[in-house]
Amino acid sequence: MSSNIKELVESLNNNKPDHKINIMEVCGTHTMAISRYGLRQLIPENINLISGPGCPVCVTPISDIDWIIGIARQYDVSIFTFGDLFRVPGTESSLYNEKSKGKDINICYSPADALDFARNNPGKKVIFIAIGFETTIPLTSVIIKRAYQEKINNFYIYNTHKLVPEALELLLLDKEVEIDAFLCPGHVSAIIGSKPYNFIAEDYHIPCVISGFEPMDILESIATIIRQINKGISEVEIQYRRVVREEGNPAALKSIYEVFDKSDSVWRGLGNIPGSGLKLKKKFLKFDAKTYFTVKRFKSREPAGCECGDVLKGIKKPTECRLFSKICKPENPIGPCMVSSEGSCAAYYKYEKIKVQHLKNLNMTLI
Ligand code: SF4
Fold first, then answer.
1. Per-residue pLDDT reduced to its tens digit, 122-164
2. Best residue among 310, 316, 321, 325 to mutate for probing ligand 1, ranked by most atoms within 8 Å of CB
3. For residue 96, what is the enclosing H or E element?
């Protein structure tokens, strides 16, 4: 393995494939790192890095945002959520707007904060918005078990948790999406291990490399993918060995499946994906906000002109959305991909907008 970035980049240039290849980075943290460190500009032009559905806030459907707003309006409840969801636009409003109108909506850093609040305020109904992939699900499962053991009766979760491998299979089956390899997520894989990706290499003949988040990690992972493609093989390899094991984290997995069963889940842009979600087991159903609270029916609508769906499938780059940086900006986000700290549009806006504008200007000069 090459020992520094210069050698890695040279090696990538010397060994680049003779055709264009699309590598999808599944994780939003990878997207941010790629943009932040300018890795797209370092690698050969025919290696195309495309972002996938790896930002949990971005893939949460707008109907979920609308439901949470509906419940905040209809009931006297305290809602706790991670910060990224706060400013995602729903059809009519956002959690941020509702809070400014006096609704009891709070940012928390852990589901334990919401449970503590419920324990200390037994007269108040408390809902934690359980969002995230396999990385955050163990935390939710622990909190549910604790609420059950302590017989806390005023605590609920609004469950939007999602599982990553099932979504990758859906992308591979989608004829609009062209993927030659996956840069698999490091944090998710720390929980699930490498085995859940084996079907991608074996059945779809697509190389998968589980990558860390430093620039060297990502470049090494891309080099490993290129090596596989040049050899005509497809395997699941772990570059992020300092964190990820083949078997994942058995204790975390056990905790998840003590509390949840697999179910279908709706993803923004991708639709309903069988087996890509989780539902609370019968024993814990009393903590399920969707079971306890009924929200008046409401027709959700995607924001006009927003291409987040295509961005999340890797069909379009953020800069191909006509609202990008003109109307849609971090201070005025139209879709979730511009809000989230792991969103592709936010990454391009923060780190690559100037390069894109520079290229456009160059183009205009040439015309
Ligand atoms: S730039 Fe804004 S409107 Fe366009 S896809 Fe991204 S989030 Fe949606």
1. 999 999 999 999 999 999 999 999 999 999 999 999 999 999 9
2. 321
3. helix 95-100
Neighbours of 241 (CB within 10 A): 10
Nearest ligand 1 atom, CA 316: 5
* Confidence at residue 3, expressed as pLDDT on a 0 to 100 scale: 63
CA angle 49, 54, 57 (to 5 degrees): 135
Kindly report, residue by residue over 230-272, the tens digit of the pLDDT. Answer: 999 999 999 999 999 999 999 999 999 999 999 999 999 999 9
- Nearest-atom index, ligand 1, CA of 335: 7
User: What CATH number was assigned to the domain covering residues 17-196+245-367?
Assistant: 3.40.50.11740
Ligand 1, atom 6: closest residue by C-alpha:
345
pTM (2 d.p.): 0.92
Where are the domains positioned within the chain? 17-196+245-367
Pocket of ligand 1 (CB under 6 A): 306-308, 311, 318, 321, 323-324, 328, 334-335, 337-338, 345
Residue whose CB lies within 8 A of the most ligand 1 atoms, among 328, 332, 340, 341, for a mutation test: 328
Half-sphere exposure of 282 (CA within 13 A, CB side): 0
pLDDT given for residue 5 in this prediction? 87
Question: Ligand 1 center to residue 93 CA distance, Å?
Answer: 17
pLDDT mean across residues, the chain: 93
Q: Which of 38, 23, 26, 29 is nearest to 352 (CA)?
A: 38
Length of the chain: 367
Q: What is the DSSP letter of 351?
A: I
